[in-house]
Design brief:
7 strands, seven-stranded mixed sheet, alpha/beta, Rossmann fold, about 50% helix
């Protein structure tokens, strides 16, 4: 039995969940449309270019959570799942997850996006293990702050290594599927790295290193 690890945004999903959450907030009138929309686009472009300051981004991403009670946020998230996320759940991604499940592999999503957004998405894929950036919750309210190592770039390795130690697991026979240049450090660590609909930088690296490249989009 091996560990099958999946990036989430633009890998299992045909889009980016935290970008879609920001759009959802704008459409609901819960944040300033012009300012929040512009910042959301700017951070997306930085992520794609590999220049994102994760701490600056988390301050932006987590602040709206601090403005509302967790129960209200959960209600909105259920709407968000139906309107924004389920249409992005790629059938071929579901099939890929199911193949690893049928093979007896341990399934995991590892993502830079925070757990509030991604927890229900992992559940929708039937994936038990989720390593995500953590949003601080105190007395039923999010504080707008993160805690623990952000699950981004080399931080994914830090968080995964801790998980492996806590669960007496290892990376023998492991798989990791990702679309992003930001995940090259973790792709280098597993036995079976796979580029999924990769960005241009990762596509070039995959070709240079002889990594498989697949598409889950049609």
């Amino acid at each position: 039995m091996s560990l099958a690890i999946f990036d989430l945004d633009n890998t299992l999903l045909g889009g980016d969940s935290d970008y879609q959450w920001a759009r959802f907030l704008v459409e609901r009138g819960l944040v300033d449309a012009a300012a929040h929309g512009a910042a959301n686009q700017r951070f997306m472009e930085q992520y794609e270019a590999g220049t994102l300051d994760i701490h600056e981004f988390l301050a932006f991403q987590l602040h709206p959570l601090s403005l509302h009670r967790a129960e209200q946020l959960d209600d909105w998230h259920r709407e968000f799942m139906e309107e924004k996320i389920r249409p992005l759940m790629l059938p071929k991604a579901v099939e890929l997850v199911d193949r690893h499940r049928s093979a007896g592999d341990t399934l995991m999503i590892i993502t830079a996006t925070n757990r509030f957004i991604t927890g229900p998405i992992a559940a929708a894929f039937g994936i038990e293990h989720l390593i995500a950036t953590e949003a601080e919750l105190v007395d039923g309210r999010y504080t707008g702050r993160s805690f623990d190592t952000p699950c981004f770039q080399a931080g994914k390795i830090t968080r995964l290594e801790r998980w492996l130690g806590e669960h007496d697991e290892n990376l023998a026979g492991s798989w990791f599927y990702s679309d992003s240049r930001n995940d090259i450090p973790l792709l280098e660590r597993v036995e079976n790295p796979v580029a999924v609909d990769p960005d241009a930088y990762l596509a070039a690296e995959a070709q240079r290193r002889g990594w498989p490249v697949i598409s889950l989009r049609g």
